[in-house]
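Recall the central idea of this unit: under ordinary conditions, the amino acid sequence of a chain determines the structure it adopts. In this exercise we apply that idea directly, starting from the sequence alone.
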Amino acid sequence: MTARDNLRKAETLFRNTFDQAPLGIVYADRSGKFLRFNHAFCTMLGFDAGELADKDIGDVTGAEDVARVSTELERLWNGEIQFVDLEKRYTRKGRRDSLGTPRRRRWCMKAARRPSTRSSSCAISPPGRRPPRNSNACTSN
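Accordingly, the structure predicted from this sequence is:
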């Protein structure tokens, strides 16, 4: 087996794992713009892929969590911390309470970056299915 075959095999394994994961996974650039996300992430938020393509982390983060999430992600990008592990609220499409305010769901987010890259990724799960702290569920590309 050649190095090219090994690379192709690893890429296929990664793509299948990413696409078929039961947890929401999203890659975002430094500004928070989504670069890639899986079907579980779309389902979690009630959007189809086309609707999420032009959104960023702030667009789907509950207003009460934006400042805290922004601070933690900035610390991640500055290299002060190696990963972010927090519980935050996401705004789901089409879900509103009786006052017309978007309903929010609490989910756990674990984000990580590598110093040599300009993107980060995160795994997102319901609070009862929190990604393990020491897992490699969040890797950068």
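The domain at 26-129 is CATH 3.30.450.20 (Beta-Lactamase).
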